[in-house]
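Why run this: before we spend reagent on co-expression, it is cheaper to look at a predicted model of the complex and decide which construct boundaries make sense. The entries below are exactly what would go into the expression plan.
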Amino acid sequence: MDDKLAPETLAIRSGIHRTQFEEHSEAMFLTSSFVYTSAEQAAARFTGAEPGNIYARFTNPTVTAFQERLAALEGAERCVATASGMSAILATVMGLLSAGDHIVASRALFGSTVQLLSNILGRFGIETTYVSATDMAEWKAAVKANTKLFFLESPSNPLTEICDIRAIADLAHASNALLVVDNCFCTPILQRPLELGADIVVHSATKYIDGQGRVLGGAVLGGEKMLEGVYGFLRTAGPTLSAFNAWVLLKGLETLKIRMDAHSANALELAKWLEAHPNVQRVLYPGLASHPQHTLAMQQQKTGGGIVAFEVKGGKDAAWKVVNNTQLLSITANLGDVKTTITHPATTTHGRLTQEQRDAAGVSDGLLRVAVGLENIDDIKRDLARGLD
Ligand SMILES: *Cc1c(COP(=O)(O)O)cnc(C)c1O
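The model came back. Tokens follow.
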């Protein structure tokens, strides 16, 4: 295809391989295996002499279509789809690292990512050192002779801290390591980490890529060669994306651009409104000029994204009052949905941390996180105002 196509066009037009029936919408191939015309063809497929599908743990045409479409959007040579965001991260580490290797990771990561790196991969001899998302000196000081991977999310959850992707990529490369960026919060519509020097992008497609809270999915994106081991792990170990989920995600990608623009516009307006509210202590949103890293955020992201964090005056009781007085917003830890969600991190996503750990992470008792959806912004404000006023 024309390589000058805009993202919204790629999101709709790439990865299409019509069948003999000339269907307009992408076909869904609900089949676990594929047949051959002869013993010769079967043998050629298995040796790899002839490309083609064998078994859905290896490839499936609907999954392949999703991979091609997401690769086009991220500007990646290759994409391998996975059953969930967590299996994308697992496959990345299993495909690239061995026992005895070391990871430097941002402290501000998705909770299950920390569990995976520390409690599971740690048992297999892969060690992780956590550093401040925003302090380059800490990243530098954590590098060891056996450091193979740097891992970050930007913006972080829930405090929307911004990692300097280019600076961290440069440090990783100077240390003979690779940089992996979890691009779940921005999607390629708002941020393209590979262009900023990252080697690999991982996604939880469960969030904005689906966009309507229907299925789990994930993806790993990067260079053709680099992903060979990641794909090798997946086709052997099996946490591959199902054809049905791939089809839902293909449809999700088609509207990703207009949804991300609308999420961002709603989030910015909500952030400004919250900042002016007398019962709000502070608002953390990368699109606000008051965000400590606003300039960096606007260099590496197109907008501030769809997630707004804010601290209410009055601690936990005041925060819970806001949550409990909502009638419209969904009280859930999920995000990236057309439905706006509200979370009290200190007692949910970060509830298992000790008070000291929460203090160190900046997750105060008054902190709330809103993943702003696509409802009318005045309705969202009114719903929050009930508990805030
Ligand atoms: C949800 C999420 C994940 C994990 O994805 P699943 O699809 O739930 O496995 C990883 N990283 C981030 C930033 C997430 O928000």
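Residues 84-86, 110, 112-113, 153, 157, 182, 184, 204, 206-207, 216, 218 surround pyridoxal-5'-phosphate (CB under 6 Å). The first helix runs from residue 7 to 13. Bring this page to Monday's planning discussion.
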